Task: structure prediction
Amino acid sequence: MQILIILNTINMMKKLQLLFVAMMLLFAIDVKADDTINSNLNLNNPDVRKCLMEASKSEGWKLAALYYNADEKLVMIFEKGNNNKTYMSK
Result:
């Protein structure tokens, strides 16, 4: 009887360890997916685009892409190291 209790305890500890590892992996994946999408700006306005470019440049961000998506919204992607920031017109 005591052996069964010990085996159940060991089995429960292994399940908790597996759960902990799974949670840590999910957290790590969530941290890596730091692609911020901001759609509060009117990027069709040239003054807004200019201000965004200047502010991003002063903080060390570099314009990586500028295009219109399938919904015909202007998209600007800035990168800094391994981080990306995406801006989409409203």
